[in-house]
Amino acid sequence: MSATLHVRVWRGGADGAFREYEVPRRESQTVLDVVTHIQRALDPTLAYRFACRVGMCGSCAMTVNGAPRWTCRTHVDTVARDGTLTIGPLRNLPVIRDLVADMREFFDKWARAQGQFKGRRTRADDFERISPESEARRRADAAIECIGCGVCYAACDVVAANPAYLGPAALNRAWTLVNDVRDAAQPERLRAVAGDDASLACHTHMSCTERCPKALSPTAGIAGLKRAVSRAALQGKL
Amino acid sequence: MSRRAETLLWVAQRASAAVLGVCVLVHLATIIYAVQGGLTGAEILARTRGNTAWFTFYTVFVIAVAVHAPIGLRAVLAEWFGWRGRARDFALIAFAVVLAGMGLQAVSGVFA
């Protein structure tokens, strides 16, 4: 392990450039530690996001040596090449400044994919009993742990080619609700995730599944949505 | 185009792909088997002309191509060249007609 790490960090907005820093190497150093060191010791004007530092909040995602990652859960040892790190904002999203991407479009697409639960019951009703062993609930549970970090969205080449595409996270969320028997908005949701800019645009590259820090498979959920919308279209229910 | 129409196009492309998968295998196996001893054009035509089974097979093959290729191109044109909308779709309908016309003409020439 060399004593210092050569770090290139994106500075500025969309027309910015990489600036270079020398950061001391430490044991068990994460990429977030590196960024924090730069801001606290070398250049206080550096903008970046983080909150929990332990892989729960999903706010510290950045592009590290070409791949989107949670910086708090990425050790420098595993990603540095020849003592060099290149850190940029998440791909496929507008850059606000430095390492901060604008997440608005990402979350607006969750809403466009009908990612909100719409229940039938009121607080006066009893709980609906759902068996955790039921097939639909198992499918929903397999996809439910998404924390909305945007890593899959940044990894997706279809979003890069078609900015209107809803993206893996929004479709994964829709898939959990398609499998939620309590939800009352299924026809609207299937319509929202059908068509050229939604589930059918997925090329099954599986970059989202490869990169998801939670080891989820949005690709599998999107394949399920493709089957569901195809069935609905053939039955004239779309 | 409505979401249902877009979805039905997607289904048509997957279904035609399944047909093409079988057709390509049968086609390749047949030509490899048929040319083993060496064949002239006249010998080929002597075997194929008036053969209803092969006429039907290659008609299905051509129709599957004419369905499959333009729908795939539709996505390619949108994603690589940003061409979307009705003009693209009409251009692709014309492309499908040309593909089907040329293919069916060839089928008719060899098998009818």
State the assembly state of the protein chains.
Answer: heterodimer
CATH class descriptor name of chain B: Mainly Alpha
Query: What is the H level of CATH, i.e. the homologous superfamily of the largest domain in chain A?
Result: Alpha-helical ferredoxin
- Alpha-carbon distance between the termini of chain A? 58 Å
Q: Unreliable stretches of chain B, pLDDT < 50, 5 or more residues?
A: none
Average per-residue pLDDT of chain B, rounded, comes to 94
Proportion of strand residues of chain A: 5-15%
Number of domains of chain B: 1
Shape of chain B: elongated
Report the helical percentage of chain A.
25-40%
Shape of chain A: elongated
Q: Class of the largest domain in chain A, according to the CATH hierarchy?
A: Mainly Alpha
Task: Write out the strand line-up for the largest beta sheet of chain A, numbering strands in chain order.
Answer: 2-1-5-3-4
What is the number of E strands of chain A? Answer: 7
What fold name goes in the CATH topology slot of chain B?
Answer: 3 helical TM bundles of succinate and fumarate reductases
Q: Enter the CATH topology name of the largest domain in chain A.
A: Fumarate Reductase Iron-sulfur Protein, Chain B, domain 2
The overall strand count of chain B is 0
Question: What structural class do helix, strand and pairing data of chain A support?
Answer: alpha+beta
Characterization of this structure:
The complex is a heterodimer of chains A (238) and B (112). With 238 residues, chain A is an alpha+beta fold. Chain A has helices at residues 31-42, 76-79, 104-112, 135-143, 151-155, 157-161, 168-178, 186-192, 207-211, 218-234, and strands at residues 4-11, 17-24, 61-64, 67-70, 84-88, 95-97, 100-101. Chain A has 2 domains: 4-101, Roll (Ubiquitin-like (UB roll)), CATH 3.10.20; 104-234, Fumarate Reductase Iron-sulfur Protein, Chain B, domain 2, CATH 1.10.1060.10. In chain A, the strands form 2 sheets. A 5-stranded mixed β-sheet of chain A has the order 2-1-5-3-4. In chain A, helix 7 (168-178) crosses helix 10 (218-234). The longest helix of chain A has 17 residues, at 218-234. With 112 residues, chain B is mainly α. Chain B has a single domain (3-111), classed as 3 helical TM bundles of succinate and fumarate reductases (Up-down Bundle). The longest helix of chain B has 32 residues, at 3-34. The relative contact order of chain B is 0.13. The A-B interface holds A 158, 161-162, 191, 194-196, 198, 200-201, 226, 229-230, 232-234, 236, 238 and B 1, 3-4, 6-8, 10-11, 14, 75, 78-80, 84.
